[in-house]
Design brief:
The structure holds two protein chains of two kinds. Chain A is of the alpha/beta class. Among the domains of chain A are: 71 residues, no CATH class; 81 residues, no CATH class. Chain A has 13 helices and twelve strands. In chain A, the strands form two sheets. Chain A has an eight-stranded mixed beta sheet with strand order 6-7-8-3-9-10-12-11, with helices on both faces. A four-stranded antiparallel beta sheet of chain A has the order 2-1-4-5. In chain A, strand 7, helix 8 and strand 8 form a beta-alpha-beta unit. An eight-stranded mixed beta sheet of chain B has the order 6-7-8-3-9-10-12-11, sandwiched between helices. Chain B has a four-stranded antiparallel beta sheet with strand order 2-1-4-5, covered by helices on one side. The radius of gyration of chain B is 22 Å and the shape is globular. Classes of the chains: A alpha/beta, B alpha/beta. At the A-B interface, helix 8, helix 9, helix 10 and helix 11 of A face helix 7, helix 8, helix 9 and helix 10 of B.
C-alpha cells in the first residue's frame, strides 16, 4: 500500500511526456501530455487497450523511441532529466539504475548467445565484479528468479527455455545491475495463467527484497488488482484516471475505467450481460475532438464533444479527466466485491 | 437440465508424429509423437454451453478440431446423434458440416482477404443451398443485423474491419447455415477487453435467440465461468475434471483446477496472496509422465499417483474428477497437511 510513500519525493517524475510519429496521414501523438509520479518502493500499473500509448510511454522514458518518433516533455530520475541526458550517462541509467522487461522474451533475448553470457554482459556493463564474481553472481541471479539447475542452464540458449523460463531469464538479466526501478511491459501477457501467477509473485517478492519501484504496463485489470498499489488508466494516448487501486476499483470516476472494470467477467454474475463499451478505440490519426472517449461514452453531453477535460484532482491522490465524473461515480462501481469499502 | 445428448466423445485419442530422426531410425525406434489427446470422453447436451478450459498445450484446440472433424481422431470416436462422424459420407457428411460449425481464434487469418463480406456469406449460403438465389441478399442483410454489423458492411473487405468486427463476421458466417452446434475456439482472446465483452454479450444473446449448443474453448477462466453451464478442465490431453460451472468453481475436486483458480487474478485488490498457486511447468506432451499427468506439479501427490493413472469418477451431481484423492475439495473433509494456508 502506498501509505509511506506520500511524504517522500517521487523516484521518477514524468511531466508532459508527448511522443509523436510522422505517418502518411500526418503527425500523430501516440502519447499526449502524460504526467505521473512513481514513488520509491511503489508498483504503478499503467492500464489501457492496444494503441492507448502505454508501451510507448515506457519506451519514451527509456529513450527507446527512435526517429521518426519524437519525444518532448521531461522524465526526472534522481534529479536528472532522462530525456536530455547525454548518451554516456544514459547508458549508465538504462539497464543499470532503470531496467526494463518486455512482453515477448523470445524477441528480447539474443538467440545466438547463451543465457548466462547475456546476464554476464549486463554485470560487465554495470558492476565492478571480476570474471569469477560475475560468473558466481549470474548463477545466483538464475537461482533468485527460480530457474532450476542454474549452473547447467547458464550455458543454454534462449530457444532451449520454455516461455516462462525465458521471462525468468529476462528478469535475471534486468536484475543483474541492482536496478532501482523496473519497467515491465506486459511481462506476463504471453504466458499461461499458472506461469503468470508465478512470474507476478516473483516480481513482487523481488520488489520487496530489493526495494525497487515498478511500473507495470498491462491490459488486464485482474493483474492490476493482484499486484499494483496505484494505477493510471490510459485512453488514446492520455491518462484519463489515476489513483490508488482500491479507490479506483471501488469508485471509478471515468466512464472508460468503469466500462473496463465492467467488461471483466466476475464470479456470481454468470451468463448475464457484461457492461461492455460500445464501439472500438479511435485511430490515433482520427482522435475525436473534445474528450477522446465521447463517441463511446453513455454519459457524454455537448460539452464532451467540444471541450477536452483536464486531468483534475477530485480527491487527494485521485485524479480524473471527465466533465461528468460525479455522474459516473453516482452510477456506482461494476466491481461487486469492493463496492463498499 | 436437458440431458438430450447431441455430441459425445468416446476415448478420443490424437497424436501428431514428429519427423523420424536419423538417430531413432538407426536405433530402430519409432518416431516420437506429440500426444495431444489421450482418451477424452464427455457428452454435450442440447442447448447447453460447455466450456473447455486449460493452458496452452493441453489439447483443447485439437479437441475442438476433432469435434467438427477438421481432424480425424486416431483412436476412439466422436458420435453425433448416435452416429460416428468418421463414418459419415456424402449427404450425411455435408449435413453434419452444416449443423456443426466452428469459429476460429484468429479473425485475421480465418477470413479470405480477397472476398467481401457479401461473398463470404453468399458462399456459405449457396454451398449448403440454404436459400434460393433471389433471397440471398435479404438473408445477408438479416445476418449482418443479427451480429450487429452495419448494413453497408456487406460490400467491404475484411481488412477494413477491426478485430471485434471481424470476429462478428466469423460468427455471421457460421450462423449463415443455421447450425445447431457452435464450436468456438478462443473466440475473443485476440480482442481488447472492452471488445471482448461486446462479443461475449452477442454470443449469449444469440444462444438464447437461436437455441444454440455451444462448445466454448478458452484459456481465460473468468470468461469460461461467465459463459458456460458446464466446464471441462483439461490437462495434457485429458479431462481432469468436469461438472456444473458453479460447483466446479466453488468447490474444485482436482488439485489442478484448484491451482488454476488460485492463479487467475480476481478483480478484488483486497484478495492478495503471496503463495504461488502451482509450481513448475507443463511437462512435455512427447514424454508424458507415468501415472497421473499432474504428479510433477501436484503438492498432494503420493506413491499411487506415480504408478496408476486416475480415471474420471463420479463426485456427485454430474460432477466428475480424475484424482486418487476422492475426498479432495470436500469442504467438510479434514484438510490435508499441505493444504493449510502458508504462514
Amino acid at each position: 500500500m502506498p501509505s509511506a510513500a506520500t511524504a517522500t519525493a517521487p523516484a521518477l517524475s514524468v511531466r508532459n511526456l508527448t511522443t509523436t510519429f510522422s505517418t502518411p496521414a500526418g503527425r500523430v501523438a501516440a502519447v499526449d501530455s502524460v504526467s505521473f509520479d512513481v514513488m520509491p518502493g511503489e508498483v504503478l500499473g499503467l492500464v489501457g487497450e492496444s494503441g492507448s500509448g502505454k508501451s510507448v510511454t515506457l519506451r519514451s522514458i527509456m529513450r527507446l523511441v527512435h526517429a521518426p518518433g519524437e519525444v518532448t516533455g521531461s522524465a526526472h530520475w534522481q534529479g536528472r532529466d532522462l530525456l536530455t541526458l547525454n548518451e554516456r550517462d544514459l547508458r549508465k541509467v538504462r539497464g543499470g539504475e532503470i531496467a526494463m522487461i518486455f512482453q515477448e522474451p523470445m524477441t528480447a533475448l539474443n538467440p545466438v548467445l547463451p543465457v548466462g553470457l547475456q546476464i554476464e554482459e549486463n554485470l560487465h556493463a554495470h558492476t565492478t565484479l571480476d570474471r569469477a564474481g560475475r560468473d558466481r553472481r549470474a548463477r545466483e541471479l538464475m537461482d533468485l528468479v527460480g530457474i532450476p539447475e542454474a549452473g547447467r542452464r547458464l550455458h543454454d540458449y534462449p530457444h532451449q527455455f520454455s516461455g516462462g523460463m525465458r521471462q525468468r531469464a529476462m528478469i535475471a538479466i534486468s536484475l543483474a545491475s541492482n536496478p532501482r526501478l523496473l519497467l515491465a511491459d506486459e511481462p506476463t501477457t504471453a504466458l499461461d495463467v499458472t506461469i503468470q501467477d508465478q512470474i507476478l509473485k516473483l516480481i513482487l517478492e523481488l520488489k520487496r527484497e530489493l526495494g525497487m519501484s515498478v511500473v507495470f504496463v498491462t491490459h488486464d485489470l485482474g493483474v492490476v488488482a493482484a499486484t499494483c498499489d496505484r494505477l493510471a488508466v490510459m485512453y488514446a494516448g492520455r491518462i484519463v484516471e489515476t489513483g490508488p487501486v482500491s479507490t479506483v476499483f471501488a469508485e471509478p470516476r471515468h466512464a472508460y475505467t468503469r466500462g473496463l472494470l465492467g467488461s471483466v467477467p466476475q464470479s456470481g454474475a454468470e451468463r448475464t450481460m457484461l457492461l461492455s463499451i460500445e464501439g472500438t478505440p479511435p485511430s490515433l490519426a482520427a482522435i475525436p475532438p473534445g474528450c477522446a472517449f465521447n463517441p463511446r461514452c453513455s454519459f457524454a453531453t455537448d460539452i464532451c464533444r467540444t471541450e477536452r477535460p483536464a486531468l483534475l484532482e477530485i480527491a487527494p491522490t485521485h485524479l480524473v479527466a471527465c466533465h461528468h465524473h460525479d455522474r459516473v461515480a453516482a452510477a456506482g462501481s461494476p466491481v461487486a466485491e469492493v463496492a463498499a469499502p | 437440465m436437458n440431458t438430450d445428448v447431441l455430441i459425445s466423445a468416446e476415448a478420443v485419442t490424437k497424436e501428431f508424429r514428429l519427423p523420424h530422426s536419423f538417430g531413432r531410425r538407426l536405433a530402430g525406434q519409432p518416431p516420437l509423437a506429440v500426444h495431444a489427446l489421450n482418451g477424452v470422453s464427455f457428452e454435450l447436451h442440447r442447448g447447453e454451453t460447455l466450456g473447455i478450459v486449460g493452458e496452452s498445450g493441453c489439447g483443447k484446440s485439437t479437441l475442438a478440431r476433432c469435434l467438427v472433424r477438421l481432424l480425424d481422431c486416431d483412436d476412439g470416436k466422436v458420435m453425433f446423434e448416435g452416429k460416428d462422424i468418421a463414418t459419415l459420407a456424402g449427404a450425411d457428411r455435408r449435413a453434419f458440416n452444416r449443423r456443426v460449425q466452428m469459429i476460429f481464434q484468429d479473425p485475421y487469418s480465418s477470413l479470405n482477404p480477397r472476398m467481401t463480406v457479401r461473398q463470404v456469406l453468399a458462399e456459405a449460403l449457396s454451398v449448403h443451398r440454404m436459400r434460393p438465389r433471389v433471397e440471398i441478399p435479404h438473408r445477408i442483410a438479416e445476418l449482418l443485423d443479427l451480429v450487429r454489423l452495419p448494413a453497408d458492411a456487406a460490400d467491404r473487405y475484411p481488412h477494413e474491419f477491426s478485430g471485434g468486427q471481424r470476429q462478428r463476421i466469423g460468427i455471421a458466417r457460421a450462423l449463415a447455415v443455421e447450425p445447431e452446434v457452435l464450436v468456438a475456439d478462443e473466440l475473443v482472446s485476440a480482442l481488447d477487453v472492452s471488445v471482448q465483452a461486446q462479443v461475449v454479450n452477442l454470443l449469449l444473446q444469440l444462444q438464447e435467440q437461436l437455441q444454440l449448443t455451444v462448445v466454448f474453448v478458452a484459456h481465460d477462466l473468468r470468461l469460461v465461468r461467465h459463459i458456460s453451464h458446464r466446464v471441462a478442465v483439461m490437462y495434457l490431453g485429458r479431462i481432469v475434471e468436469i461438472g456444473p460451472t458453479e460447483q466446479l468453481f466453488s468447490a474444485p475436486r482436482h488439485p489442478y483446477t484448484r491451482a488454476l483458480l488460485d492463479a487467475a487474478p480476481e478483480l478484488n485488490p483486497g484478495h492478495r496472496s503471496t503463495r504461488v498457486a502451482a509450481r513448475g511447468e507443463l511437462p512435455s506432451p512427447i514424454h508424458l509422465p507415468k501415472g497421473c499427468a499432474f504428479n510433477t506439479r501436484c503438492p498432494f501427490a503420493f506413491d499411487r499417483c506415480f504408478v496408476e493413472r486416475p480415471e474420471l469418477t463420479d463426485r456427485g451431481s454430474l460432477h466428475e474428477a480424475a484424482c486418487h484423492l476422492t475426498e479432495f475439495g470436500i469442504p467438510s473433509a479434514v484438510p490435508l497437511a499441505e493444504d493449510a494456508p502458508a504462514p
